[in-house]
Amino acid sequence: MSETDMKLVVVGAAGRMGQTLIRIVHQTAGVRLHAAIERSNSPFLGRDAGELAGLGPIGVPVTDKPLEAFVEAEGVLDFTAPAASVEFAGLAAQARIVHIVGTTGCSADDEAKIRAAARHARVVKSGNMSLGVNLLGVLTEKAARALGPADWDIEVVEMHHKHKVDAPSGTALLIGEAAAKGRGIDLADHSVRVRDGHTGPRPQGTIGFATLRGGSVIGEHSVILAGEGELVTLSHSATDRSIFARGAVTAALWARSQKPGFYSMLDVLGLN
């Protein structure tokens, strides 16, 4: 452990991603776990964060006091829920630290509040923190631009574990936004999220989404470009939740030296 290590806070520490983040922070050079945060009624308060994550004791107890932790830290890793992320964004802005947001399912209002916090915090927000998915988004944008709507239809297919509560996934929407950008259209006005009954023919220029849920699938995403007599499929499979945690830590280290503002993983990876 070095004096120059970036001090990070993990919020939602007892969740699956929280535990993964604790493990990745613990094993990554240049960062260290400063605090682990849970909600005020959590049964895990007072537990050692390392024991919670299967590492053994590391001397960092789980607490329910995020602001106290934030003002002494340099960054927060947040894969919680929209309402919690909005609250943490405000606290990160007060503390003027890095806020890495991997939370999905945010409303337009939630998004606006997080962006407002970026006037004082350095916020990196993405529907997916992995290098592979963000590269998939770049490739999707290029493919959508090259293969026009008159001859090519775009469908985004995703599958996640049965416990996921938002649909389509944040990653599917990230891919859809990339496709819409390639086509020069607004995704909200051109996306088809549900098909049921007698739907009629597929409207030209729309971007369709199909959502699958089941088992313990971490994340499967494909974008299908369907033309007359041919298909182009771009896909990504996540087999280990740690890819998102590694991306989040990479983003935190990158944002440490940035000015306050709202960034994406494309900025972190130099793909913008």
Automatic annotation (TrEMBL):
GO biological process: diaminopimelate biosynthetic process; lysine biosynthetic process via diaminopimelate
Domain of life: Bacteria
Pathway(s) this gene product operates in, as recorded in its UniProt entry: Amino-acid biosynthesis; L-lysine biosynthesis via DAP pathway; (S)-tetrahydrodipicolinate from L-aspartate: step 4/4
Enzyme active site: H160, K164
CDD domains: DHDPR_N (cd02274)
Chain residues that bind NAD(+): G12, A13, A14, G15, R16, M17, E38, G102, T103, T104, S126, G127, N128, M129
Keywords, sorted A to Z: Amino-acid biosynthesis, Cytoplasm, Diaminopimelate biosynthesis, Lysine biosynthesis, NAD, NADP, Oxidoreductase
Binding residue positions for (S)-2,3,4,5-tetrahydrodipicolinate: H161, G170, T171
One Gene Ontology MF term: oxidoreductase activity, acting on CH or CH2 groups, NAD or NADP as acceptor
Cellular component annotations (GO), alphabetically ordered: cytosol
InterPro entries reported in the protein's UniProt record: DapB_C, DapB_N, DapB_N_CS, DHDPR_bac, NAD(P)-bd_dom_sf
EC number: 1.17.1.8
Binding, NADP(+): R39
Family assignment from sequence similarity: Belongs to the DapB family.
NCBIfam families listed in its UniProt record: dapB
Subunit and interaction comment: Homotetramer.
The protein's name in its UniProt record: 4-hydroxy-tetrahydrodipicolinate reductase
Taxonomic lineage: Bacteria, Pseudomonadati, Pseudomonadota, Alphaproteobacteria, Hyphomicrobiales
